[in-house]
What does this fold into?
Amino acid sequence: MRTQTSSLRSKDLLGIEPLTPEEITLILDTAEGFKEVSERPVKKVPALRGQLVINLFMEASTRTRVSFEIAEKRLSADTLNFTASGSSVEKGETLIDTAENLMAMHPDMIVIRHKHPGSPKMLADRLPASVINAGDGAHEHPTQALLDAFTIRERLGRLQGVNVSMIGDIAHSRVVRSNIHLLTKMGAHVTLAAPPTLIPAEIERMGVRVVGSLDEALEGADVVMMLRIQLERQGKLSLPSLREYYNTFGLTPERLRRAREGVLVMHPGPMNRGVEIASDVADGPYSVILEQVTNGVAVRMAVLYLLAGGHLAE
Amino acid sequence: MNVKKRLLDRARMQRAIRRMAIEVVERNRGIDDLIIVGIRSRGVPIGERMAREIEQMEGVPVPFGILDITLYRDDLTTIAPQPVVKPTKLPEPIDDKVVVLVDDVLYTGRTVRSALDALIDFGRPKRVMLAVLIDRGHRELPIHADVIGKTVPTDADEVIKVKLEETDGEDEVLIMEK
It folds into this structure.
C-alpha cells in the first residue's frame, strides 16, 4: 500500500494564481497516469463511483464542457448538466439561488463556466462542494492552462526555460491569464505579441515580455500559442479588419520558419482559420492542437480525482 | 517500530523468487500464453525478476506488464491525501492468456481484489494466477495465492517490510513490531 504526502491544499480549483509549483507538478504528474485510461478497451475506472458532479455552464462552451463530461464519466462519477438556456436562470433566478438549489441535491463537485469573473469563488465560499472553474469572464481558465502545460511538458520534457510566445487577443483572454501564471511559476519565458489595442497596459508586471510584431515573437520560440480572435466581439475589438489582422499577426508557414526547429504550434480552440492561423499551419507538422484536446481529458480527470480526495478528508 | 526478525536476506530472497518462477512454469506446463504482471509498486521488481528467471530457464522472453490499482481501491474515498496515480502498462492483449499477478505481501486480500477488477477491464484472461513473495495471513476476502515465496504467521499488530534493491537499495524482508 502506497501513500503519497502531496495533495492540493484547497477544496477548489478557482485559478492557477493560488497554486504552488508543487501543486501544478502534482496535477501534471497525476494526469500522466490518467492518460493511459483513455487508451484502454474499457475507458473507465471506478475512482469517483457514487459521486455527483454538476456541470454548471452559464456561458456557451462545447469543448470544455464535453471534455469535463468525458473526464467525469471515465472516472465513473454521476454527472448532471445544467445550462443557462431553458433553465430557471431564464426566469430570473440568481446564481446563488441556483447553486443553493443544486446543493440541496448533494453534489460532491460543481464545474462552473460563467461570464462574470469571480463567480466560481463566490460559489466556493458558500458551498461545501468542490468548485472547479471552467472559465470565468476574462479572469482564469485553469484547466486550459494545465492541459497546455501538460502538452508542452510531454513534448519537450520540461517547462523550465522554455520560450513560449502567445499571440492574439491578450486583453480579453482568460486562457492567456492562466497560462502566464502557470508558465512564469514553472520557470518558462513568456512573450506576448498583439496589436496595441489588444494588449492591456502594464501586463509586463506579470513577468512577461511584450513585443511589437509577430516576427519578433516567433524568433527563438519553442512554443507558439495562437489565440482566438473573438469574432463575436467584432466592432468592440478595435481592429481595422480581419484581413489586416491576418496580414500582420496571422501565423503562416513562412513566418513560422523564424521559430526554433521542432516548434510546437498550439491553439485553445475554436480556431478561425485564415484569421489568426493559416490552415497549412493548423494542420501542419508542428501543430499539437488535437493533442491538446486529448490531453484535456486526462488533465481534467487528474483535477477531479485530486479534489475528490482533498475534499472528503475535511 | 522495532525490527523483530529478519525473514529473508538477499540470498534467500533470490532463491524464493527463483522457486516462484519455477513453480509458475511447472503449473502451466511451459510458458505458452503466459504474461507476468506486477502490481505497483513492489510487485513490479519482483515480477520483473521472475520474468528474468523464466527467460533464463526457458530461453525465451516472457511478456511483462505493470498494473496500477489505485483507481480501483475500495478505500479511495476514505484515505487522504489521494495516492498518486501511475499508468498501467500491459505488453499485449490479455484475452485468453494466463496472467500471473505478482505482489510482495498478501495480507487482507483487498489489493488483489482491486487488481482483479482492474485486470478484467483490459480483457478476459483464460486464467489468472496470484504469486506473492510473502503470505502473512489475516485475509478479509476469500482470496488465496497460487504461488508463495514464504508463508509467515503474523500477529495483526506486526508489519511486514519488504525491501528491494530496485526501490529501497537492498534486498531483505523484515518483520517489525508497532
